[in-house]
Amino acid sequence: MAKPIFPWMGNKEKLIPYIRQMIPPGIRQFAEVFGGSGALILSLKPEKKRLDIYNDLNDDLFNVFCCIKEKPISLAKELQFLPIHGRTPFAFYRDIVAHEPDYHKHLKEELELLQNRSLFSENQAQELTALLKERAGLFDVQRAAAFLLMMHGSFSGTGSSVGIKAIDVNSIVTRLPEVSQRMQSIVLENQSALDLIPKRDRSDGLIYADPPYVAAEKCYDVSFPAENHLLLRDQLRKCEGFIVLSYNDCRPVWELYQDDFFIFSLKRENPLAQTEGSTYGELIITNYDPRPLMNSQMNLFAPSPETKWELVLLNTPNHILKTL
């Protein structure tokens, strides 16, 4: 069990106590298909009989978790090597992350050139190939370290604008071991969620989906066109396994899910709002009725004015897709 090692816009840490209680006991697979910071999957205690899967199409997220899982010591060294103060280092991190495609294109061209026997002997090619691959591995670690520092140094985990705050590298490094240990029992995927869902759906598994919210699709680097909300609903409606979905509370989401899914509402503070006390309406949507699994003290049915955080059942579908 671990906590996210970097801030991420849309992080679901505060929803974890509610979502975890909704997870049926004894499931054999848990897949977080829009992984982000991995808040939920990191919080789950690993079980030998359950396969845990983290997926995100964002190459930087996939790379940083690969490095946390497989190269934590190298990553810790790189974090302590990179500069950390001021706006110039923040631009430096972004530059490292942005140039990954160019770097690997150049590396591929170099590797292909080594196959030309008029230029390199077999022994030379083998020696230089090993050096190039070692260099590629170092770039992945440097890129992961730059990504972590960029996220910690950005405003509200956006990664796009510098925040007015100091970066505490030691706090990142000291948390690496627990996150790396948790990642050892997690399978990493780097696919579109829409492609992964049908591949990983199984009757004794649970898929947790936290897609870009409606009208916030452009806030993320990976494209998620508006029509994908409908495609996602159609994929989830066909699943044999359990589905838990988090979304923003808006009419398009209601129109998509009210016929076949249970809809719960939760209010949370909006970290991007400038007005004190601003809230963001969250929906937790399931294809089964999770209430028998949940703690009744979580105010499932009646809102209370003095309670800032509460979960309320708002919709019971006519057509229930999955039973406990």
Brief descriptors of the model:
alpha/beta; 8 strands; globular; 324 residues; 2 domains; eight-stranded mixed β-sheet; Rossmann fold; 11 helices
What would you note in describing this structure?
By secondary structure, the protein is of the alpha/beta class. It folds into two domains: 13-57 and 191-315, Rossmann fold, CATH 3.40.50; 72-174, no CATH class. The protein has helices spanning 16-22, 39-43, 59-70, 72-81, 87-98, 100-113, 122-152, 169-183, 193-200, 228-237, 251-257, and strands at residues 29-32, 51-55, 186-189, 205-209, 242-248, 262-269, 279-286, 311-315. The protein has an eight-stranded mixed beta sheet, sandwiched between helices. The longest helix is centred in the middle third of the chain and has 31 residues, at 122-152. The radius of gyration is 22 Å and the shape is globular. The relative contact order is 0.16.
Q: Termini separation (Å)?
A: 25 Å
The CATH architecture of the largest domain would be 3-Layer(aba) Sandwich
Query: Biggest sheet: strands, sense, closure?
Result: 8 strands, mixed
Total discrete domains: 2
The CATH superfamily of the largest domain appears as Vaccinia Virus protein VP39
Q: Give the strand order of the largest sheet, numbering strands 1, 2, ... along the chain.
A: 3-2-1-4-5-7-6-8
Poorly predicted parts: 299-307
* String of helices and strands: HEHEHHHHHHEHEHEHEEE
Tell me the Rg in angstroms: 22 Å
Record field, number of beta strands: 8
Question: What's the CATH first level of the largest domain?
Answer: Alpha Beta
Shape: globular
Count of helical segments? 11
Mean pLDDT: 83
The portion of residues assigned to helices is 40-55%
Strand percent estimate: 5-15%
Structural class: alpha/beta
